[in-house]
Structures are given as structure tokens and as C-alpha cells.
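Weekly modeling sync, notes
Attendees: S.R. (lead), two postdocs, one rotation student

Agenda item 3: backlog of single-chain predictions. S.R. asked that every request posted to the team notebook include the full sequence so nobody has to chase files. The rotation student volunteered to paste the first one in as an example of the format we agreed on. Action items at the bottom.

Example entry:
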Amino acid sequence: MDYKSKIRVIEDFPKEGISFKDITTLLKDGDAMREAIDDCIDLVKSVDYDVIVSPEARGFIIGMPVSYAMRKGFVPVRKPGKLPGETLSYEYELEYGTDVLEIHKDAIKPGTKVLIADDLLATGGTVKAIVEMVQQLGGEVVGYLFLMELSFLNGREKLSNAPVHTLIME
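Predicted structure, as returned to the notebook:
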């Protein structure tokens, strides 16, 4: 399937100079969404991992169905104040500002093999923040899964040496 044709591009969002890749147009097409998730599952079938870790909210769209299909645990990474237990916080830079993410301190045990899943790899700031948190908790990042990657932004350079699996390259 030509997934790129299913993704709407919105210029100058959320600020001038950004070409926002809107996956909601792919998601609203039930057949395209199902095929994309199935193809993402196929990309990581051979990866040996214990849990999928994904950032809210768009990362959940990819991480949860893959986690469910593969019978793996799912660990949400959220904005501050959204998780009820004791959390680890991490501030990081985005392509258009800074942000903070949190993860439950008991979500990742030492030695846990983690697959990080998100909708988009752009500059890599969000994923790098998740890697840092996983490592601080003693986990090991064994792979990455992205629905889409904007390769011209060189986000892979911020990732650890674990394999990167991407469905749509741009």
C-alpha cells in the first residue's frame, strides 16, 4: 500500500516552517490503518523484547495494537501529572521547543528488554528522552518501531545502536 498517499501534510503547523505529517487521515481509513499496524507487527516479529514503551498520545496508536498482537506488556510515557504512581521525569528538546515526559519508576525493571514505538521519528528528541529514562531505570532498548521517519532530520543519530524499524521513510 502507498501509505504516503494516506498522510496529509499541513504546512506551517504547529509553527511557521514546519511541515506537519498528519497521520489521522491514514487512521480514519480502516483498511489502511489495519494494514499499517499489521505491517508494523511484521517489522518487529523477530525482535526479542519484553515491553513496548510509547509516548502519549500518538505513540500509543502504534504501540498499543502491536503490544496487544504480540502479547507483550505496554508502558505509557506521559506528560507531567498524568501518571498516578511515583514517576521519573525527563526534560528534553523538541524540533520546536522543550517538553517534559514521565514514566512510572516501577514500569521498567533492571534487565527489561524494551522496544520503543512511536508514530514519527523526526529530530529524535522525544525518543532520546525515552531512551534516557529506560536506561536510568535499568532497562535495555533493543529496538525502535516508527510508523514514519523523516530521514532528512537525522533523528537516528540521537538513538542508541539498537535496530530501527520504520514503515514509511520520507
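Discussion: group reviewed the output briefly. The longest strand covers residues 140-149.
Action items: rotation student to repeat for the remaining queue; S.R. to check formatting next week.
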